[in-house]
Amino acid sequence: xxxxxxxxxMSKSGSKLAEGFVHDFEQDIMRVCVNGEFSFFVSQEVxxxxxxxxxxxxxxxxxxxxxxxxxxxxxxxxFVHSMQKRDNTRVNKVLHYHITHKFDEDIEGDVKPKIKLDxxxxxxxxxxxxxxxxxxxNQKFYVGYRFPLVFKDAGRPIDLVIEVERCEDYNRSxxxxxxxxxxxxxxxxxxxxxxxxxxxxQRRHNLLF
Length: 209
What we know:
By secondary structure, this protein is mainly beta. Helix content is about 15%, strand content about 55%. It has 2 helices and 12 strands; from the N terminus they run ββββββαββββββα. Strands 1-2-3-6-5-4 form a 6-stranded antiparallel beta barrel.
């Protein structure tokens, strides 16, 4: 299962450690062939995102068992969750938004009040799916940081709660993988239709030009 599927390995804090593909996966042992440089240590706990055409995005946790020249062997592999094809279908699309509020994490309970930021934070959306988005900005956020955003590109405004799941540090800027928290089916479908429309338009443009 998952042989030759692309994968992304993240630290427990959400930082990108390596990318490549699954060489083999049996029981609770996974061998990953890494593209480019990587930095791991034995017994390090990681999260592994595996991208399968049928199963969608599958998320696992594991521990580094052995380091080889091009391969890393992980043990204690445990399945966390997966996102189906609709949820995992995404499109590269540059969109510009502003973060104007955040949620007050000091308040207990499921419903957190919003706090207006002193200054809006500019973000650039790089790609988006029905379940989440990937964006860049020059502001550092911690994993688990949540903020509200009104998505206005899917035909009608959609109120989203966005949570940072992983961070990639590029010295002067940061890229973030995020999920939409408690998004309902109707809003997911609207964003999914937006994603499919953009995919079709991009293919049409590539054919014409």
